[in-house]
Amino acid sequence: MKKLILFLLLLPTIGFSQAKVDTIEVFSTAMNKSLKAAVTLPTGYESSKESYPVLYLLHGGSGAFSDWHQKVTEPGLVNRLADQYDLIIVTPGVGPASYYFNSPLMDSVRYETYMTKELIPFIDSNYKTLAQKESRAITGLSMGGHGSIYLSAKHPELFVAAGSMSGVMNIDTRMWKVPEGFSTLRTSQQKEMLGEINYDAPNFNPFTAVSYTNQMKENGIALIIDCGVDDFLIATNRQMHQLLLENETPHDYTERPGAHTWEYWTEALPFHLLYIDKYLKRN
């Protein structure tokens, strides 16, 4: 039986937000290990008889479940947004450079299964959620942007809207204009997790988000994608945008000043909530 383990996560607050943050551990049967997540509950949650929509907010490649609380340049941003939109925000933690997929070679990398079959049911069982796709959305930064678009494309029954901030829309590191050491590290990790796979269009491998543009059109999930013009991942985002234009998939795409930084993501998240909130049902 899965157990709910609560910890106190000491986080900065802003203004008069009274949002509460639980830090939980969820055991993954698929990977035989426990993973932490932060669950932000809006003011009034404990006394309310209502159920709430949920946003899953994903971290980047070398990040952690607490990043969105501790690294944003506006302290208490997640708490404020949970109150402003009256919803639950879940920030799960996953392994480094794991991209939220299931590795065909490593039993320790089953993050697609964890997210869709273990974490979401766990949250719905232990919190007052509206446990339906119409009330559930997902977004994230960098690797988390990949995870959001990838998971929503493969599991349209789970999400009504999905977003990406500075996302790795294509895991092909040849498209990343970053220092050689960083790129080499990621290439080595990908080969360990995935083996020899195809990175070239039009037959992209099934582990990268750009391979699911046809499914995105069929799914009809609301999509918001943005990236800074100085971001080393801008090429992958432009590629995704172009593919979605070519197959006429409705989506919101924005390029703004900025790079791969927390300043950029701090500014981007409120825009994502403003967009996503239009699609979340509250009954």
UniProtKB/TrEMBL annotation:
UniProtKB keywords: Hydrolase, Signal
Pfam families per UniProt: Esterase
Gene3D superfamilies: alpha/beta hydrolase (3.40.50.1820)
Signal sequence annotation: 1-19
GO molecular function, one term: hydrolase activity
Record protein name field: S-formylglutathione hydrolase FrmB
Organism whose genome encodes this protein: Algoriphagus zhangzhouensis
